[in-house]
Amino acid sequence: MSHASVPSYRQRIGYQAGLLGGSTLLAAALLVMGDMATRDTIELRKAEDLKASLSQVIPPAMHDNDLLAHPLTLENADGAPVTVYRALDGLQVKAVAYRIVGIGYAGEIESIMGIGADGKILGVRVLAHAETPGLGDKIEVAKDDWILDFDGLSLGEPPAERWAVKKDGGDFDQFSGATVTPRAVVGSIRRGLEFFQSHREALTTPAQITTTDPDAPVRSQP
Amino acid sequence: MSTDTETKPKTPWGRIASDGFWNNNVVFAQSLALCPLLAVTGTATNGLGMGLATTVVMIAAGLLVAMIRGQVTPEVRIPIFILVIAVLVTLVDLGMNAWLHDLHKVLGLFIPLIVTNCAILGRAESFASRNPVLPSAFDGLMMGVGFTFVLVVLGGLREIIGSGTLFANASLLLGDGMSFLEVTIIPEYRGFLLAILPPGGFIALGFMLAAKRLIDARIAEVKRRSAESGGEALA
């Protein structure tokens, strides 16, 4: 690119500005097209992910509905909204599942927790975390059975004050070399149970489903 | 290989290839892109996925930048190149999220970081903005292949030492047909944490850089000897 051969209009400030503006417009158009082409597929993949993790904490035999259909939205103790997925048999609530979050060694540890209508834990699975590989990642079911120890427990069993790791005088094992991570998970599960207790009424009343929305997934009848 | 009719001097395809893969390798010679390199190479599969995504972006960036280089004035070229690269990376990110979702879950955090991979802007600036379309795309391909090569070797080393496997979860990236790649090198291995953590990446990269120097020295030695013996034969 030699400067001598560049036409004079290109050296005007207007050309430069127009060039930048035009390229930005073109880029924006491309991004919109890309977004439109992939949005539905990405939504579908995310729903599949959610369904897969929900099926780990609520046994599929327990319910006959689409777990993602008709979720409830309630407020937790901090006033933040919690989306609750309900497992229904007919219209009877058999179990609920929702996300719980604890602050671990390296940021948030996001888990999903399933609780039966009797208040007992059906299962807990960690969805996302950034804990140290080899130390803190034993909270993943793929690495260790630790998270399975919570199955069947509830807020009375063990009593609320013993919902902590052993180092803090509670009932649950920490890992050698990692206390912060299990402490965060145990704490998030305890808060999840407390959430269930304080909203027990709203969570377990039989579902009232109005099928006015034609796009809503159809409930399979028992 | 077809020659480009546009260029009067013959395009040095062979030199572009050897530069991209070895002599001017993104990591070995330019020491660029170390952040994604060390971040994702816990396993060979992650390295391969990151390398392929980067290669796609590099080829497309080379193509586009070479196409618009006549219109872009030197004063505004950097913002426009960055814009081109950012759009490409976002499109790759969306596409992977939609169609390679499982791999995206692993690499998702690092794909947007391809924008900050200075190697891509570096090639746009130093090669694609001065060369025709085909050689620029080819340069992007070879630079990407060179980068992928380093990612896979480093990922493989760290995976074998760190977890005792090789190409774990390769079927997520390449489809179920390639699951034969997933090998357990050391059964019942307890794992070696250091190799998976970032310091292990630095250490392994150091050994790879040393190996590259050794190989280069050996090649130079062989060339020197053959030149000497050639000279003696003439004399």
UniProtKB/TrEMBL annotation, chain A:
Among the GO biological process terms of this entry, one is:
electron transport chain
One example of the protein's molecular function in GO is: electron transfer activity
* Residue ranges occupied by any FMN-binding domain in the UniProt entry: 104-196
The chain residues annotated with the modification FMN phosphoryl threonine are: 179
EC number per UniProt:
7.-.-.-
User: Pfam family example for this protein?
Assistant: FMN_bind
The residues that cross the membrane are 13-33
Membrane topology value? Single-pass membrane protein
| Localization, UniProt | Cell inner membrane
Q: What is its main location?
A: membrane
Keyword annotations for this protein, in alphabetical order, are:
Cell inner membrane, Cell membrane, Electron transport, Flavoprotein, FMN, Membrane, Phosphoprotein, Translocase, Transmembrane, Transmembrane helix, Transport
Against InterPro entries, the record matches this protein to: FMN-bd, Ion_transpt_RnfG/RsxG
Top enzyme class: translocase
> Which coenzyme or cofactor does it need?
FMN
List, alphabetically, the GO terms of the cellular component aspect: plasma membrane
PANTHER family given in the database record:
ION-TRANSLOCATING OXIDOREDUCTASE COMPLEX SUBUNIT G
Its biological purpose:
Part of a membrane-bound complex that couples electron transfer with translocation of ions across the membrane.
Subunit arrangement? The complex is composed of six subunits: RnfA, RnfB, RnfC, RnfD, RnfE and RnfG.
Q: Which family does it belong to?
A: Belongs to the RnfG family.
State the name under which the record lists this protein. Ion-translocating oxidoreductase complex subunit G
Give the originating organism.
Answer: Thiorhodococcus minor
TrEMBL record, chain B:
GO process terms (BP): electron transport chain
Location(s), subcellular: Cell inner membrane; Endomembrane system
Q: Which species is listed as the source?
A: Thiorhodococcus minor
HAMAP family (alphabetical): RsxE_RnfE (MF_00478)
Top-rank taxon:
Bacteria
Q: Which UniProt keywords apply?
A: Cell inner membrane, Cell membrane, Electron transport, Membrane, Translocase, Transmembrane, Transmembrane helix, Transport
Among InterPro entries, the record links this protein to: NqrDE/RnfAE, RnfE
Q: Which family does it belong to?
A: Belongs to the NqrDE/RnfAE family.
Q: Name one GO cellular component term.
A: plasma membrane
Membrane protein topology class: Multi-pass membrane protein
Protein name as catalogued: Ion-translocating oxidoreductase complex subunit E
